[in-house]
Amino acid sequence: MPDYAEQHELLDECVRGTHRDESLASLRHYFDDCTGRWFDRYAGGGDEPSVAHTVTEADVLALNFLSITSLATVAIDATMTHALRIRELLEQIPPDLPMHEAPWSTYEPGAPAFRLWELFRQCGGNHRPVTASKLLARKRPHLTPVYDSQVRAVLKAPASPWHCLWTWFHTDPTRARAVEELRKEAGGIDDISLLRCLDVVLWMRARRT
Predict the structure, then answer these.
(1) Which of 104, 106, 109, 113 has the fewest CB atoms within 10 Å distance of its CB?
(2) What is the rounded CA–CA span in Å between residue 208 and residue 11?
């Protein structure tokens, strides 16, 4: 398996090391002032029980808060063309299962989460991994992270971003608690997933470098 020592060291520094104060300031600034703060909360969130197993128009519109602007085809594909298959896969992925408690089999090729990510890549055109990542994170924010060019750059393009983050959590259970403490100290974001907190910390760090 790939060695993510460099990425794990950076995450440790951001969560409970020398960069922690910067991370805390980033979380507060992002969820106070940045447009992206609405992504998780718009229309009650994508994992709200009444809509957890379907992609809604609100889910598609929420992508706009993370700078995905070409939404018409995404909306048609995700809410109409592939709607039945999307529902079938979402029903197999628990909405409240967090990455730090999930077995790695949850993410392997052939697993519902992996197949749904592949299906989302076809929404709005073939091979759109960033849009797929954000749409999947909207529907399962505790299980799959937002992953875009900014986060990719600051993490130095790990072979598998899912495996990179999953191994970070699972090789040291205290890391999840450290993120929880960071989230609590930031204040007012207890409804935001641990993965989303990490995404914001990394994204804001990328903007500063």
Answers:
(1) 109
(2) 16
